[in-house]
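INFO  loader      accepted 1 record
INFO  loader      residues=128
INFO  predictor   begin
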Amino acid sequence: MVRPSENEERYYCRKGNHARNIQLITDADLNILHVDATYGGATHDSFIFNHSIIQSHLEGLVNAGETVHLLGDSGYAQRAYLMVPVPNIEQGTPAAHYNKLHATARNTVERTIGRLKGRFRYETETSS
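INFO  predictor   done
INFO  writer      dumping tokens
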């Protein structure tokens, strides 16, 4: 990302460069269902989610009696519809088993991001 001329501090991320913090929701087949690229790299994941159309949509579904499940990483708070890893667990417990299954299922978003990055790397290399 090119260094922004305005509000630079909003884009300076924990990795020490300028970036956007992208909220991405995918399905199990690596299809992208939702993207929010509104915020800079300094913005916390939970802030983006709490101000997203997805959060209010899921809240509405739950309030209407629907059962919905979205997986999130440890940067999010547990909610009725948002499943996150259990912190500070002991190996061999049901919580450890849950975390293992959760990580396996959530890996689809990481694989989607990897594919997306690979596509842009390839396009950048071939256009040089």
